[in-house]
Each structure stands twice: as structure tokens, then as C-alpha cells.
Amino acid sequence: MQQPDILVTSPVAPLSRSRLPDGFVGFRPDLGAFLKARRKKEKWKQQTLADAIGIARPSLSAIENGHAWPLLDTLEALARELELTQDMIFLRGDKDRKARSSGHSRRAYYRLELGRGLREGRKREGLTLRQIAHRCDISVAQLSRIERGDATRSRAYRDHPDYMELPKQDRPLQFRHPELQRLYLLDD
């Protein structure tokens, strides 16, 4: 069987039209339903596939039901396990079209960078989202949003105290909870 194309994108930037593989303009709109049908066709139980790709079963369920989009590494693992190609996941089209904005403010960048670093630190220590969520007394779903940089109104962040003289929209962020900050700093 031919190996699926490797999905390549920047580890920091969110997937947008400018970050998709060459020749693609977005995810197929029925990605969740497609993944569910493919999983069933390959005779995978939801829990077994979730364990194989390293996510919780409710997270896979949310992806399959269209309530969440997979992170890039989750998508890569799904592609490997379900033997998917890029053409099965993404839509081909003209990349010259203007990319949709996904909140490219400086604070959005800081949230994204904090989330990326947190995820890398968590993986480096071999911890699950559930373990960290329990330690920090936040929900797994919220922690997942934090790792993706999607927790825009979260109390998990605070302004970095060394930059309080800057306007609020320009101040770097840091994690409020010491355990999240510690895991983020492991990535350095």
C-alpha cells in the first residue's frame, strides 16, 4: 500500500490557506464525517483509534461529529492510521485567493506560542491533557483550546509583569498557573 503524503506546515502558525500544503486551499467541509466513515470502513473502534493516535475518545468523537478540528499532529496520526492522502483531507484550489483572518493580533500570536510551548513541554514529560488538566484544575477541553491558541478569553493567561509599560494589545502573555508556565518553559 502506498504511504500517504506527509502533511507539512509550520509548527507555530495555525493552519490557514497560506499554511496548507501546496495546491490546497482548505479542509474538506465534511472532514469529521469522512473520518468517521473511514474509521468504520477500516473497522476501528473509536477508543482503539483514539488510543493509537494519542488523544482521548471524546476528542475523536468531537472531531468526527464536526464539533472540533484536529490539531496538525492529530491529523497526521489519523492520516497514518487510516491511510489517508492529502487529497482525501484537503480541498484543491487556487492559493492566490486571500486567506481568511484568524485573529492575527500580537496577543493571538502570544497565545499560539504559549500553547505550542505548553504542548511540547507536556509531550517532553510524557503527560496527557487529562493529567495536566487535573493538576491545574481546568477542563481537558479548555486545556486543549489553550494548546491550540484558541482560548481567547481564558483566565489561564496574564500580562507578563516585565512589560506592563507597553500598551495592553502589545504586552506579552504568560501562564497564570505555575505548572502551565513550567511546562511551557521546558520547550526552551
Short description:
By secondary structure, the protein is mostly helical. The chain has helices at residues 31-41, 46-53, 57-64, 72-82, 86-89, 106-124, 129-136, 140-148, 178-186; strands at residues 24-27, 90-92, 157-159, 173-175.
Defining key terms:
globular; 4 strands; mainly alpha; disordered N terminus; two-stranded antiparallel sheet; 188 residues; 46% helix
Main pleated sheet: 2 strands, antiparallel
**Sheet with most strands: strand arrangement:** 1-2
| SSE order | EHHHHHEHHHEEH
Query: What would you call the quaternary organization?
Result: single chain
Radius of gyration: 18 Å
What general form does the structure show?
globular
- Structural class category: mainly alpha
Strand content: 5-15%
Low-confidence sequence ranges: 1-18, 96-103
Helix segment tally? 9
Could you walk me through the main structural features you see in this protein, from its secondary elements to its overall organization?
The protein is mainly alpha-helical. 46% of the residues lie in helices and 7% in strands. The chain has helices at residues 31-41, 46-53, 57-64, 72-82, 86-89, 106-124, 129-136, 140-148, 178-186; strands spanning 24-27, 90-92, 157-159, 173-175. The strands form two sheets. Strands 1-2 form a two-stranded antiparallel sheet. Helix 2 (46-53) crosses helix 3 and helix 7 crosses helix 8 (140-148). The termini are far apart.
